[in-house]
Amino acid sequence: QVQLVESGGGLVQTGGSLRLSCAASGRIFSWYALGWFRQAPGKEREFVSAINWSAGASTSYADSAKGRFTISRDNAKNTVYLRMNSLKPEDTAVYYCAAARAYSSSNLYTQTNDYDYWGQGTQVTVSA
25 falls in which pLDDT band (50, 70, 90)? Predict the structure, then answer.
């Protein structure tokens, strides 16, 4: 079992930045592929970014996040981060981190049903 707790959300103006954190506890964190998703009111949960557990930590981003968001992980701290720059009102959503047991270090997952564990979410609101 893996427990995930997000933090770092809040209210920010257009063009501002936030860094989300997701602290994990439970099983061996370093064997899990990790992802960030978001869900805006009335919309489905969508993929934002993912990172695998290889030494090179390969990453994947949704088109909406490319060039603005950066995912990273610190296995020593059992934490995954999402740095978000140049925020836009359309980034407003509840952001969730997720963990997937990955038997291959190269695996990256972009679908919600690939993930086994989810955090409770943190609200990000970007004002115009």
Answer: confident
pLDDT in tens, 42-94: 999 999 999 998 877 899 999 999 999 999 999 889 999 999 999 999 999 99
Tell me the three-class secondary structure of 21-75, residue by residue: EEEEEECCHHHEEEEEEEECCCCCCEEEEEECCCCCCCEEECCCCCCCEEEEEEH
- Please give the helix or strand (H or E) that residue 60 lies within, else none: strand 59-61
Q: Which two tokens stand for residue 11?
A: 């209210």
d(CA 33, CA 115): 9
| Residues contacting residue 18 through CB under 8 Å, at least 6 positions apart | 8, 9, 10, 12, 83, 84, 87, 124
Please tell me the predicted confidence (pLDDT) of residue 38. 98
CB 9 within 8 A of CB 95: yes
- d(Cα 3, Cα 120) in Å, to the nearest integer? 10
Structure-token match 């930590």, residue found: 57
